[in-house]
Amino acid sequence: MKTLTTAEEEIMQHLWTLEEASVAQVIEEMPEPKPAYNTVSTIVRILENKGFVDYRKQGRGHIYFPLISKQEYSSATAKKFAANYFKGSYKSMVSFFMKQEDLSVQDLEDLLEEIDKNKKS
Questions:
Q1: Could you tell me which InterPro entries the record lists for this protein (predicted)?
Q2: Which of 1, 56, 99, 115 could be bridged to 76 by S-S, CB 3.0 to 4.6 A?
């Protein structure tokens, strides 16, 4: 899966939340200072060319919607991150974040609970 630039990922975050939207609707959801319409429109077209979004015509405009779910992208990104920085070892990656972020005992217990849930399903 192709990676997204920071700007592309920001647009995708809004499209994932909105599920479908015009460029103007995406801009409405963005924080101040809002980017120019042409900037967002260009990024959306790039996302379309990369296969992340598609559109349907509505009147004279377009309504864009994600083709890749947030879950799919998150999973692919996590795998690539683990492969590039931790030789594919999720254990090393989690250990790194435990040390860097100084996780609380509650955070660790929550992680163990999630692991147990995933083992059962």
A1: ArsR-like_HTH (IPR011991), BlaI_family (IPR005650), WH-like_DNA-bd_sf (IPR036388), WH_DNA-bd_sf (IPR036390)
A2: 1
75 & 39 share domain: no
Count the domains in the chain.
2
Q: Which domain holds residue 94?
A: 70-120
Q: Which residue has the tokens 């647009």?
A: 11
Q: Is residue 56 part of a domain?
A: yes
Inter-axis angle of helices 6-18 and 37-49, nearest 10: 90
Same domain (yes/no): 75, 104: yes
AA letter at 110: D
pLDDT in tens, 24-37: 999 999 999 999 99
The per-residue pLDDT for range 36-50, each reduced to its tens digit, is 999 999 999 999 999
Coil/strand/helix, residue 57? strand
Token pair for 113: 């609970």
43 and 81 belong to one structural domain: no
Give yes or no for a contact between 68 and 48, defined as CB atoms under 8 angstroms apart. no
Contact 20, 64 (CB under 8 A): yes
